[in-house]
Amino acid sequence: MTRLIPRLVIGLTAVHFAVALIASSTFDDVARDGFWNAVPGKPQREYEMWFFLAGFGLLALGTLSQRIARDTGRLPAQLGWYLLAIGVPLQILYPVSGAPGLIVLGVLALIAARRDSAGESRRTRMSATTDREQCS
């Protein structure tokens, strides 16, 4: 699960970007208006641009946690907490959204991090025991 969770976060990011690009006319409108200052004061454009840009934060969580998992063999618990910190309020504020995906991935990330931590402490104890036996 340690290596799967970041991939799932990245996959959810791809869905997020696809929804932002397919279900929006904002990008065409912004291009037609020449990009510069084409969003402020237009609530629909502001909403859709923030939705799109928020995907980069999710992408960062996925790719950084993927790198950490690859380098350390452990998934950081912070990933789970961050996903829950985004998903739970989002579920309350926007019940029809992708929030359940964030919440599920957050819980799975916390479970994986806890297992990684438990496995690491077991390996540390076993290593310490082996070292003591070799010294004797």
List keywords for this structure.
mainly alpha, 136 residues, elongated
Provide an overview of this structure:
With 136 residues, the chain is mostly helical. The chain has 5 helices and no strands. It has helices spanning 4-22, 26-32, 43-72, 77-93, 99-135. The chain is elongated and about 75 Å long.
Flag low-confidence runs: none
Secondary-structure class: mainly alpha
- Report, as a whole number of angstroms, the end-to-end distance: 38 Å
Global geometry: elongated
The pLDDT mean sits at: 87
Largest sheet: none
Rg is 21 Å
The helix/strand series, from N terminus to C terminus, equals HHHHH
Question: Helix proportion of residues, in percent?
Answer: over 70%
Tally of alpha and pi helices: 5
Number of strands: 0
Beta-strand percent range: under 5%
Briefly say what this structure is:
The chain has helices spanning 4-22, 26-32, 43-72, 77-93, 99-135. The protein has five helices and no strands.
Secondary-structure topology with pairs:
Elements: H1 4-22, H2 26-32, H3 43-72, H4 77-93, H5 99-135
